Amino acid sequence: MIYLTRRADFSASHYYHNPAFSPEENARVFGKCANLNGHGHNYTLEVTVKGDVDATTGFVVDLKDLKTLMEREVIGAMDHRHLNKEVPEFKDLIPTTENLAIVIWNRLEPRLKIARLHRVRVYEAEDLFADFYGEA
């Protein structure tokens, strides 16, 4: 079994807001992230796939194809976007780093045909990260 990781960067804005909370509770729980005007982050995305090496191509997956998939499903949909307002999954989901990793997994996993998705890692500029391995 071989593991391959491809990395990409994107920037997006968001805010944290739970409609079940009062404005005061949102401010207490989420701090500055509760500002409904939002704020931005620079993210690094790492997508790790796993599989066996094909004897004829020498690939687990063609990394060009993985890059194209990541650009279509994640970068094109999220780069320079307001996650709460422009990414459908975050209409009713708080766009935390953890939820972002899960949403990205759900966008990529069903579209991989040869290799299997092993890990989605999302880093913020502050070096926080969330790993998702598909066991939600």
Outline the structure in words:
The protein is of the alpha+beta class and 136 residues long. The protein has one domain (2-132): 6-pyruvoyl tetrahydropterin synthase/QueD (Tetrahydropterin Synthase, Chain A). It has 4 helices and 5 strands. It has helices spanning 23-30, 63-78, 83-86, 97-108, and strands at 2-14, 39-51, 81-82, 116-124, 129-132. Strand 4 and strand 5 form a beta hairpin. It is elongated and about 60 Å long.
TL;DR of this structure?
Helices cover 29% and strands 30% of the residues. It has helices at residues 23-30, 63-78, 83-86, 97-108, and strands at 2-14, 39-51, 81-82, 116-124, 129-132.
CATH fold type: Tetrahydropterin Synthase, Chain A
Could you say which structural class the secondary elements and strand pairing correspond to? alpha+beta
End-to-end Cα distance, whole Å, is 23 Å
Strand neighbour order, sheet with most strands: 3-1-2-4-5
State the helix count: 4
What quaternary form is this? single chain
Mean pLDDT: 93
Return the domain count: 1
CATH-scheme architecture: 2-Layer Sandwich
User: CATH top level?
Assistant: Alpha Beta
**Overall morphology:** elongated
Main β-sheet: number of strands, strand sense, barrel status?
5 strands, mixed
Which stretches are poorly predicted, pLDDT < 50 over at least 5 residues? Answer: none
The helix content, as a percent range, equals 25-40%
The ordered H/E elements are EHEHEHHEE
Radius of gyration: 16 Å
Give the percentage of residues in beta strands: 25-35%
Classified in CATH, the superfamily is: 6-pyruvoyl tetrahydropterin synthase/QueD
Number of DSSP E strands: 5
